[in-house]
Amino acid sequence: MSKFKKNKSGEQPAISTASLPDIVFMLLFFFMVTTVMREQDLLVKVSPPEATEAEKIDRKDLVSYIYIGSPIEKLKATYGSAPRIQLNDQFATKEQIAEYVEVERQKINEAERPLITFSLKVDKDCEMGVVTDVKQELRKAQALKINYSSRKTDKIK
Amino acid sequence: MARRGLPEINAGSMADIAFLLLIFFLVTTTMDVDKGLLRKLPPPVDEPQNEDIKIKQRNILEILINANDQLLVESDYIQVTQLREKAKEFIVNPRDREDMPEKEAKDITGVGNVMVSKQVVSLQNDRGTSYGMYIKVQNELIAAYNEVRDEESKKRFGKVFKDLNEDQQKIIKEIYPQRISEAEPKNIGTK
Q1: Which of A:30-49 have CB within 8 Å of B?
Q2: Which of A32, A124, A146 faces B131 most closely, judged by CB atoms?
Q3: Where do the H-state alpha helices sit in A12-154?
Q4: Residue B165 contacts by C-beta under 8 Å, 6 or more apart in sequence?
């Protein structure tokens, strides 16, 4: 009597798919953990400049964003193509930055407030004038830690 | 009573449900981590200071960018690609040249007396300079400092800067402090 009986019919046995859910769940959890939902719609077109020395920001919860660039295609008819500042979900003027800084500061617990970083997401074709204005406003509002958002590359063309 | 046991729940559709969720998260996920050049702005000054802090000309590396994205370093017109070498030479001043920054003996805890250069990099751009160019210059300057620090770290501790422990990093930072000062931009060439 052999322990290893041949399949009587000689057909290939079906591959068990019982572990398929496990594999899918594994992937699912991976994406659930890594996912970041987009918080806001961009009203300005931003293609960040490239830099070799770009560093990762380690505390994402302490970062607030300021977008600067010309309005997206859809809005060009209404707003023109001059560079604009976007805070939260709408266009802003530079005078509103101080207020924005204050609001963002309040969101963070008191001990960590000095660590707040403002990340400037600026289009690379934008002129420095408007960026300088924003920087001056940030200085006035005592928000001195800033980050020039840029893409990491190995070599600058 | 001889129970037969509960009939098993068919788990065949579990995969379908999980797939559905998986696809949702696949679509919504954005994996970009924000990267960039971290800088510190100088604190605001209340009133314009009349008395300038005097820094000797030889201690300043003057960098100007005009509205056409051209670069002027110490009155030489150069390309961005040359800037890194130039900045490195300025920061280290290896041959103790007369027109490069002076050095001063400084007592640093842990290593004793070290000659520390009094270098300051001064950057001024125009309001019409493109942001891309500005970042390129900033990037080259930071790269110059990083390379100089790496070299010093290898010489002293045999490791690159980012592999050093906190105390060692502090020592290197004291020997080569990053001093990039930005002047208020001029407004000449706004388009």
Answers
A1: 31-32, 34-38, 48-49
A2: A124
A3: 20-34, 73-79, 97-106, 128-140
A4: none
The Cα A87–Cα A42 span in angstroms is 10
Tell me the C-alpha distance between B37 and B24, whole Å. 33
Give the nearest partner residue to A139 out of B44, B80, B139, using CB atoms.
Answer: B44
pLDDT in tens, A30-45: 888 877 766 677 888 8
The answer to whether the CB atoms of B136 and A54 lie below 8 A apart is no
Q: Which residues of A touch B126 (CB under 8 A)?
A: 128
CATH of domain A50-152: 3.30.420.270
Quick: pLDDT tens for A82-113.
888 998 888 888 888 999 999 999 988 888 88
Position B191 scores a pLDDT of 47
Domain regions of chain A by residue span: 50-152
Residues of chain A with pLDDT > 70: what percent? Answer: 90
Residue in chain B closest to A122 (alpha carbons) equals B131
B174: tokens are 């004291």
Chain A (90-149) residues lying within 8 Å, Cβ to Cβ, of chain B? 117, 119, 122-129, 131-132, 135, 138-140, 142-149
Burial of B144 by CB count in 10 Å (0-12 exposed, 13-18 middle, 19+ buried)? buried
Q: Please give the average per-residue pLDDT across A3-23, as a whole number.
A: 74
Whole-complex ipTM: 0.74
Residue A132 amino acid letter: T
Is residue A6 pLDDT above 70, yes or no?
no
Question: Taking CB atoms and an 8 Å limit, are A55 and B38 in contact across chains?
Answer: yes
